[in-house]
């Protein structure tokens, strides 16, 4: 009898627990639905206030072409360069790219939020468009980077055309003159290993030390560790130009390599003292084993 009563109490307690979970889940579901409904209302108001006639895509984003590109269409896997401004529906600017150093990524590989990936896939190079990206194609219910959950983001995007970096002839002349047949990486970097290191492979976050000489394609030296001293930096955290970060990531300690870095991975349209705008840079690098 005592066992039956004890078992009955346990079953009642378990049932109460299950009911609590069900009520809690129902509350969460209702909260999600309320937040999504509110977000959709705000999108509808924005569409109306801005006289936008475009229909949403199947995913729910809006793609509004403001200038048709005259270049090639984007296909999955392409490395693309864009200038953009991101803002909230109320007009507050969230982020803007540096027009002298455009943002680049490999389209269709999940390296950007889904809505941005989708929007760029509709564009041709040289084109401009506005993306209205709802939270489920951006940062979801939890948000990120200081962006609250259930937040729609509006992007004005320009997809740069092939003429943006128009110094391919100089690069080809350099490659031919130096007998370089190495193919570039997906970002456009040429990595030529000249001596394999015997030490560890470096990974993102490692503190690395390098000796280097930096040159233009005409062999003009603009910087060298002989003058500036050994360079130390934490790999993969944006402490150096993107091409340097990428190139060193392929090396082992004790190794040597030559990097030919395109302007979009270096100083872009702005250049630097001693480095003209849109310059390819050549670095001879030794990754020190220390």
Low-confidence stretches: 1-8, 14-29
Number of strands: 12
The CA-CA distance between the termini, in Å, is 75 Å
Averaged pLDDT, please? Answer: 87
Task: Describe the fold and architecture.
With 290 residues, the chain is an alpha+beta fold. The chain has two domains: 53-159, Chitinase A, domain 3; 168-287, Chitinase A, domain 3 (Roll), CATH 3.10.50. It is built from five helices and twelve strands. It has helices at residues 2-49, 114-121, 168-177, 225-228, 242-249, and strands at 62-67, 79-88, 93-96, 103-106, 128-133, 153-159, 190-195, 207-216, 221-224, 231-234, 256-261, 281-287. Strands 1, 2, 3, 4, 5 and 6 form a six-stranded antiparallel beta sheet that branches. β2 and β3 (93-96) form a beta hairpin. The chain starts with a helix and ends with a strand.
In a few lines, what is going on in this structure?
The chain has 290 residues and is α+β, with helices and mostly antiparallel strands. The chain has helices at residues 2-49, 114-121, 168-177, 225-228, 242-249, and strands spanning 62-67, 79-88, 93-96, 103-106, 128-133, 153-159, 190-195, 207-216, 221-224, 231-234, 256-261, 281-287.
SSE diagram, text form:
Layout: H1 2-49, E1 62-67, E2 79-88, E3 93-96, E4 103-106, H2 114-121, E5 128-133, E6 153-159, H3 168-177, E7 190-195, E8 207-216, E9 221-224, H4 225-228, E10 231-234, H5 242-249, E11 256-261, E12 281-287
Antiparallel strand pairs: 1-5, 2-3, 2-4, 2-6, 5-6, 7-11, 8-9, 8-10, 8-12, 11-12
């Amino acid at each position: 009898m005592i066992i039956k009563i004890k078992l009955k109490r346990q079953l009642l307690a378990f049932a109460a627990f299950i009911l609590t979970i069900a009520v809690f889940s129902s509350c969460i579901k209702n909260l999600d639905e309320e937040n999504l409904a509110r977000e959709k209302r705000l999108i509808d108001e924005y569409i109306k206030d801005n006289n936008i006639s475009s229909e949403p895509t199947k995913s729910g984003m809006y793609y509004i072409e403001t200038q048709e590109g005259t270049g090639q269409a984007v296909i999955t896997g392409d490395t693309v360069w864009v200038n953009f401004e991101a803002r909230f529906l109320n007009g507050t600017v969230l982020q803007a790219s540096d027009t002298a150093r455009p943002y680049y990524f490999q389209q269709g590989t999940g390296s950007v939020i889904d809505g941005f990936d989708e929007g760029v896939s509709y564009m041709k190079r040289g084109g401009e468009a506005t993306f209205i990206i709802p939270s489920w194609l951006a940062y979801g219910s939890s948000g990120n980077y200081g962006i609250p959950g259930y937040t729609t983001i509006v992007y004005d995007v320009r997809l740069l055309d092939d003429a943006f970096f128009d110094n391919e002839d100089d690069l080809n002349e350099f490659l031919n003159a130096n007998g370089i047949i190495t193919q570039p990486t997906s970002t456009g970097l040429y990595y030529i290993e000249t001596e394999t290191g015997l030490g560890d492979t470096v990974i993102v976050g490692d503190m690395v030390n390098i000796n280097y000489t930096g040159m233009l394609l005409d062999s003009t030296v603009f910087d060298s560790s002989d003058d500036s001293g050994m360079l130390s930096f934490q790999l993969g955290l944006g402490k150096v130009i993107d091409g340097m970060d990428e190139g060193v990531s392929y090396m082992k300690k004790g190794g040597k390599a030559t990097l030919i870095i395109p302007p979009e991975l270096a100083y872009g349209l702005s250049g630097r003292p001693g480095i003209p705008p849109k310059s390819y840079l050549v670095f001879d690098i030794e990754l020190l084993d220390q």
